[in-house]
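Below is a filled-in request sheet from our internal design queue. Each sheet records the structural input a requester submitted and the sequence that came back. We keep these sheets so that new team members can see what a complete request looks like end to end.

REQUESTER: design group, bay 2
PRIORITY: normal
MODE: inverse folding
CHAIN LENGTH: 461
BACKBONE (tokenized):
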């Protein structure tokens, strides 16, 4: 299996350090519901996790929940995102975190995203974070200011290696630093002293405060995956600050790298640009469902682009994905119970090679289509589709009609395909689409009835 390592900018053959492949995924910041861009990042991690399993590895997948310390500017200025949400909504930050986390997992389930082995909340690991910061201070990598403890990047020569930052050029042209106590504009907060109104705060050797966002992931990665582990993922926006800073903390404390492979998922764009609340173009999975697009159609939509490519979201694109997804389900299921001899092995090999080649999901879906489109109904095609679906996660096996069950085999091919497509839409809880197809069948002179024994399709006499 090969994976692209952002650190080396190369595809590398994956060789895990130990029997379990350690995978740390930066998790959601739970101040407001995840949008579909966030969910694209977790689909990427899910495909990675599934591909590892498919490749014969046993992942130990750890995902954090950021419920404190992530500031509005993603660096160390601004307000804690949870504190801000609590202030604006006049709610308790703990209650916001709990409800947003629950919703996150509901969305993840609806997208058929598998749960990590470990889900860890930042606020449950404050002692580990304090110990990490103390370790860095003991080794001379930090200093105290009036508002916190900062990492001193001058003490870590490797700073900037992930983002290939030319530090001297950057520092010379750096924006005016808002915090005059920082020695270098790239120094970053390990621990923040909390003003009285900051609701989430803990005792520490430096008074009451809360952890910096980056130290959270370093401390929890160390806790659950140890001093050296295999893979660390996140969205591409994490590369220049969050992950750069994690690397500095890890290596300054341990004296060696903690992570072998850094992987980053590209962004979902909307109409070619950034999603933002102010533009009113930020959608959640619930918004998609309200407009008639089931979550699994969004999974299929994301499967159409490699994780290292930007993906542009449009409603037309979503329409096409929904239709194609329903057709794919129907095409695959039509092979169930088939006795033909359609070819399987070349496609099975293509699909397997694609998913193990730096998660080339779109290529695997392409091969799946070619295989499933073959007219001869063949059980082995269905079996091969389900085998690759362990990685794709498209729920190709949901209860739907087997070949021959959607009515007598005497139904014309086109009608039968429509019946299958309608069953697939129903299984996918896409009821508007199921109804539309039923209407289309009626227009063609066929009546569909759902019975206890399954669906019956009859020519209207
Ligand atoms: P957050 O909840 O803000 O910490 O972000 C959760 C994850 O979503 C992170 O891995 C981000 O990098 C990622 N992310 C944020 N915006 C997008 C986007 N538009 N497309 C893809 N991933 C994103
Ligand atoms: Zn993180």
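RETURNED SEQUENCE:
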């Amino acid at each position: 299996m090969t994976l692209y390592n952002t650190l080396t900018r190369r595809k590398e053959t994956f060789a895990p350090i130990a029997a379990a492949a350690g995978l740390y995924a930066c998790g959601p910041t739970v101040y407001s519901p995840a949008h579909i861009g966030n969910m694209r990042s977790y689909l990427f991690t899910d495909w990675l996790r599934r591909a590892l399993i498919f490749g014969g590895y046993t992942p130990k997948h750890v995902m954090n929940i950021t419920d404190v310390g992530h500031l509005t500017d993603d660096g160390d200025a601004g307000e804690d995102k949870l504190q801000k949400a609590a202030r604006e909504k006049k709610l308790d930050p703990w209650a916001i975190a709990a409800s947003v986390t629950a919703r996150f997992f509901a969305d993840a389930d609806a997208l058929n995203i598998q749960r990590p082995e470990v889900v860890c909340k930042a606020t449950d690991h404050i002692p580990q974070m304090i110990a990490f910061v103390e370790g860095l201070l003991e080794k001379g990598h930090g200093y105290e200011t009036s508002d916190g403890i900062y990492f001193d990047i001058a003490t870590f020569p490797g700073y900037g290696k992930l983002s290939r930052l030319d530090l001297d050029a950057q520092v010379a042209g750096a924006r005016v630093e808002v915090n005059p106590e920082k020695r270098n504009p790239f120094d970053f907060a390990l621990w923040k002293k909390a003003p009285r109104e900051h609701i989430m705060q803990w005792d520490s050797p430096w008074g009451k405060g809360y952890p910096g966002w980056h130290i959270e992931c370093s401390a929890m990665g160390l806790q659950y995956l140890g001093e050296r582990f295999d893979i660390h993922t996140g969205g591409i926006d994490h590369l220049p600050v969050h992950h750069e800073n994690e690397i500095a903390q890890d290596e300054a404390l341990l004296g060696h790298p903690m992570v072998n492979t850094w992987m980053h998922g590209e962004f979902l764009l909307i109409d070619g640009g950034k999603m933002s609340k102010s533009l009113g173009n930020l959608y959640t999975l619930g918004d998609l469902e309200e407009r008639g697009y089931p979550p699994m159609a969004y999974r299929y939509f994301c499967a159409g682009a490699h994780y290292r490519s930007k993906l542009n979201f449009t409603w037309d694109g979503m329409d096409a994905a929904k239709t194609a997804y329903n057709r794919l389900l129907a095409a695959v299921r039509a092979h169930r119970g088939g006795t033909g001899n359609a070819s399987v092995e070349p496609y099975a090999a293509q699909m397997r090679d694609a998913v193990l080649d730096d998660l080339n999901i779109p290529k695997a879906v392409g091969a799946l289509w070619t295989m499933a489109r073959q007219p001869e109904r063949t059980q082995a095609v269905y079996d091969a589709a389900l085998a690759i679906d362990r990685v794709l996660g498209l729920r190709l096996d949901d209860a739907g009609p087997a070949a021959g069950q959607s009515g007598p085999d005497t139904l014309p091919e086109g009608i039968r395909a429509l019946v299958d497509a309608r069953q697939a839409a129903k299984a996918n809880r896409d009821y508007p689409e199921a109804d539309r197809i039923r209407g289309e069948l009626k227009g063609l002179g066929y009546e569909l009835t759902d019975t206890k024994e399954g669906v019956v399709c009859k020519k209207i006499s």
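SHEET NOTES:
- The CA atoms of residues 273 and 279 lie 10 Å apart.
- DSSP finds 15 helices and 15 strands in the chain.
FILED BY: M.R.
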